[in-house]
Amino acid sequence: MPLVPLDAADDPRLADYRNLTDVQLRLAKEPAEGLYIAESSKVLRRAVDAGHVPRSFLLAPKWLPDLADVVARFPSVPAYVAPEATLEAITGFHLHRGALAAMHRPAPRPLGGLLAAARRVAVIEDMVDHTNLGAVFRSAAALGVDAVLLSPRSADPLYRRAVRVSMGSVFQVPWARLGSWPGDLAAVRAAGFTLAALALGPGAVPLGAFPARDHERLALLLGTEGDGLSDAALAESDVALTIPMHGGVDSLNVAAAAAVAFWECRYDDDDGGALPAL
Fold this sequence. Notes:
Blueprint: E1 3-5, H1 23-33, E2 35-39, H2 41-49, E3 54-59, H3 64-72, E4 79-81, H4 84-91, E5 99-104, H5 111-116, E6 120-124, H6 130-142, E7 147-150, H7 160-165, H8 169-172, E8 175-177, H9 185-190, E9 194-198, E10 205-206, E11 218-222, H10 231-236, E12 239-242, H11 254-264
Parallel strand pairs: 1-4, 3-4, 6-7, 6-11, 7-8, 9-11, 9-12, 10-12
Antiparallel strand pairs: 2-5, 3-5
Helix pairs in contact: 6-11
């Protein structure tokens, strides 16, 4: 186990971990340098179990026993060890679970390959809140969504907060970033998917009345946190779906709405694709 005790927070070998709280800096640095940060022992373990490869580890001493087997799987990868106060000085925040890893960012997945193996996909337009995005991925993993597609301006699923909120589900659910929006929706439709937009407005079908069981392949479109789906995305959709509201509430948070839609439109393998009656 190549443990490397740290003498100072300004060690040049720790460049991957500096300024983790500077969102704009990290969003520019991490994709450009082909890395992302996995935070907490559980998320780190899920990353390596998904086949992702670490560049280095950064650990508080008390987390060494819990992650010894993970570190041992990568004998040539340095594991930097420092007291929690030093970790906070390096990263810019207090680590409640003192374990980080700088991971090699996996290669992008081709759209065609994702669609070929999928029956239920989520398509996300311009979702910029990493907490919401992580929550959507966690619901997708739990409720049988086979893939997530992101518009070019959507947030990074491998940003630290998105990874943490998803509890590592971003490693479990295949995803791809579309190159053209909404143009690439034509490729989704050509692969046999019905495009169902989660949107308010005249003509929208209540989600519980939509015959999801009749659609072998279904793509659920989700919009931004404030404005919802754009007119251009709605124009590409085959149907608009809405979740009936009560108590004077006009809509749900997009992550909550996604979970409801994923459940209502789930695909059941047990009876040849038909969904059970709800």
